[in-house]
Design brief:
25% helix, globular, single chain, 14 helices, alpha+beta, 517 residues, six-stranded mixed sheet, four-stranded mixed sheet
Length: 517
């Protein structure tokens, strides 16, 4: 694997972004996980460490799982229900549990509970025997199986993982174990001999090992994959660079190019607690003023993305078409933006700071926004942040500026509950690991989120999410920019690469000829 940027964290209670989530699949297992990417329904939830999906009580408040026999950690010790409970309870630690927030939102933990290291046992997760785990929820949540596919639901041996123990090391439950990690440079994985493929219907784990080479320039990666020399015939990477797209029209690469429409939205979050951005008219003005066609060009054009006007991408169930801030050719409506700014008391605009990643495409997107907003007098300063610390920085409200360009991918595509709720539930605003970048805390929105995610009729729930999408955009807490298409060029000896919704499933990748490279 050739990549530019390091992963956020090896500790799954801390990491929570698409790249590292895909990596976790190689070294960790959870009670439930996504089906393989080449399954008939790659969005389906399937048992992993558990024998089956959860058994739910009639009132929807209790979910019970039973562990498979023969599942082990990398030291050969059996994975027990106590380990599942311990690993999941780490999510409540205020320093460690900065990743996926869902367990804290749905499991009925006592008020003030701060994880096993500080608060001890979590009584609302029961372990009546070594193989049975029982969860008690705050309210019915019919998608609880999907919640347990999140990296925060990885089991760990009782007492492990305190402080920074898992920053540079892991305790593996999946098919591979960490053999070498030099941050910013290399990650090497070798087969975990304690992983039993008879217990795992999801990961084929065909290669004997993996090497992640980190810190490479994106253009260099593309050149290596195009040339395909030596071991690079066995290499894969993330999406190709914008400048490479024209070269992929060469017939030599026709059978290697993979194009997938992602479920990921690129957006500009607007911090509703900052200065002029407290006024909804100002936020609406910015939605009118941004030239989305220019941002699309910075992203790589129509090959790489499509312009967005809604919160939910088309591939996420619950999406509904609408555009509250239309403009000719997606170039922005400058007059309407100026009118709203004048109404809000800012006829000459105002200064603001935009956080962006130190990555060429992201910086180009920031510059496109900067130029567009200058047309209405908004003077944008770009604050460039290193990619490896970007999510942590913008997810810390005390370090966050007026706005940030980032993206969001649903953790499961079959529902909008992992799209709208994490981004706009005001009760989930946190000092660290905050996903609600707009810091929107609107009681009506919070109430609508509760109503939608407690519906047992998922069709009705998805209709409710679609309605809420538009209601939130009336408040203009962010500017939807585009939905990515992701284009991959695996090495010519790579087999089985699939990336539905734009995320590679490492667990099914292999080689056509193991002797090559």
């Amino acid at each position: 694997m050739l990549q530019s940027d390091d992963f956020s964290y090896l500790d799954p209670a801390r990491g929570f972004d698409g790249g590292v989530n895909a990596f976790y699949r190689l070294i960790y297992r959870t009670l439930v996980t996504k089906a393989p990417a080449d399954a008939d329904d790659p969005n389906a939830m399937v048992p992993d460490l558990a024998e089956s999906l959860g058994e739910v009580s009639e009132d929807g408040l209790t979910w019970t799982y039973r562990l498979k026999e023969g599942v082990k950690f990398d030291d050969g010790s059996p994975i027990t229900s106590a380990d599942v409970k311990f690993g999941l309870s780490r999510t409540w630690d205020p320093e460690i549990g900065i990743g996926a927030p869902y367990l804290k939102q749905y499991v009925a933990a006592p008020k003030g509970y701060e994880g096993p290291y500080r608060s001890g046992d979590l009584e609302t997760i029961e372990t009546p025997d070594d193989r049975t785990v029982v969860f008690h929820l705050k309210a019915p949540f019919p998608e609880f199986d999907a919640l347990l596919s999140m990296p925060s639901a990885v089991p760990f041996p009782e007492g492990s993982g305190a402080g920074d123990e898992f920053i540079n090391d892991v305790i593996a439950s999946g098919p591979y174990d960490l053999v070498n990690y030099t941050p910013g440079s290399v990650i090497e994985l070798e087969r975990n001999p304690e992983w039993d493929p008879e217990t795992d219907d999801v990961r084929r784990a065909l290669p004997d090992g993996w090497r992640f080479t980190i810190g490479l320039d994106g253009a260099t990666i593309d050149e290596r994959l195009l040339a395909g020399q030596g071991s690079d015939v066995n290499a894969i990477s993330g999406k190709v660079q914008t400048a490479t797209i024209a070269r992929l029209q060469d017939p030599r690469y026709a059978d290697r190019v993979i194009k997938e429409q992602s479920a990921c939205l690129t957006y500009m979050g607007l911090n509703t607690t900052k200065g002029p951005l407290r006024d909804v008219r100002v936020r609406q003005a910015l939605n009118y003023a941004v030239d989305k066609s220019s941002v699309l060009n910075a992203t790589g054009g129509t090959q790489f993305a499509t312009v967005a006007s809604t919160i939910l991408p088309e591939s996420v169930t619950g999406h509904r078409d609408y555009d509250l801030y239309p403009s000719e050719g997606d170039a922005g409506d400058v007059e309407k933006a100026r009118e709203l700014l004048a109404e809000a008391g800012y006829p000459d605009g105002f200064p603001m700071t935009l956080d962006i990643r130190a990555q060429p495409v992201m910086q180009a997107q920031g510059e496109a926004v900067q130029q567009a907003l200058a047309r209405v007098g908004v003077d944008v300063s770009l604050n460039v942040i290193d990619v490896s610390t970007y999510y942590e920085t913008i997810g810390t409200p005390s370090q966050q500026h007026d706005a940030a360009i980032t993206g969001w991918c649903p953790d499961w595509n079959s529902s909008a509950s992992t799209f709208i709720a994490p981004l706009f539930d005001g009760r989930q605003i946190a000092e660290k690991g905050n996903q609600n970048l707009s810091q929107l805390n609107d009681p009506a929105v919070n109430e609508a989120i509760d109503a939608a995610r407690s519906m047992t009729d998922l069709d009705a729930a998805n209709a409710a999410w679609g309605d809420l999408d538009e209601r939130i955009m009336e408040l203009a807490p962010f500017v939807p920019l585009n939905v990515e298409n992701r284009i991959y060029l695996p090495g010519e000896n790579v087999a089985g690469l699939a990336a539905p919704a734009g995320e590679i499933d490492y667990g099914i990748v292999g080689l056509k000829d193991p002797a090559r490279g």
